[in-house]
Amino acid sequence: EDQVTQSPEALRLQEGESSSLNCSYTVSGLRGLFWYRQDPGKGPEFLFTLYSAGEEKEKERLKATLTKKESFLHITAPKPEDSATYLCAVHGDSSYKLIFGSGTRLLVRP
Amino acid sequence: DGGITQSPKYLFRKEGQNVTLSCEQNLNHDAMYWYRQDPGQGLRLIYYSQIVNDFQKGDIAEGYSVSREKKESFPLTVTSAQKNPTAFYLCASSSARGGSETQYFGPGTRLLVL
After folding, report:
1. What's the CA gap between B46 and B28, in Å, rounded?
2. Residue A80 gets which letter from DSSP?
3. Which B positions 7-26 lie with beta carbon below 8 A of chain A?
4. Torsion A39-A80-B2-B95 (CA) sign
């Protein structure tokens, strides 16, 4: 069964303190791994799609990487406006749907 | 601007009442989806549609119904059979049918029971 686990559940950082969020997945035939940002009371905002191990993508202070078992979302020198819940999802060969993790709640303090 | 709109932002349901959530997209996407989000849980798929006049049940379809009469619209009805409807409902769309194209989300509708 396809599965996604995100860790940690919550993360508190000081402004400028770099860190990483983890997304571990089990899927038969990865067709895509997706990262989203979600602010309270709003819909998820698309960040990145990764398709194969070794692939990396960057956007401002965020960088997503992918291996055969997990993905990391690296946040470099975060700012308070980076505070949000970050969601990871996978799409595998055996299913028509995205499987979402429960998310990591990030709080960046000034 | 292209995007997905959902209305209303908040919706209140009385016991025994059916309510309908609206989802419209102007991205020219073929596929549309409805998810339910509960606190501390991942998004769960209710229904999806890959083409007009066709839709399939997701993981938690009981107590819900949908229609897809137009490419741009995918309304969700929460029926009285759904005993625990309080949740945040998200509509999404993508350009691929069953592929791995990115799903884009609307702003959501929060449903509360009176």
Report:
1. 22
2. G
3. none
4. negative
pLDDT, position B101: 79
Amino acid in the structure at residue A107: L
The answer to whether B90 contacts A4, with C-beta atoms less than 8 Å apart, is: no
**Locus of tokens 């979302």:** A73
Q: State the pLDDT at residue A96.
A: 76
Query: Which range, of A33-37, A61-65, B12-16, B66-70, averages the lowest pLDDT?
Result: B12-16
Check if B110 contacts A (Cβ < 8 Å): yes
Interval B70-79: pLDDT, tens: 999 999 999 9
Strand partners for A11: A106
Closest Cβ opposite residue B40 in set A51, A96, A102: A102
**Alpha carbon distance A77, A19 (integer Å):** 8
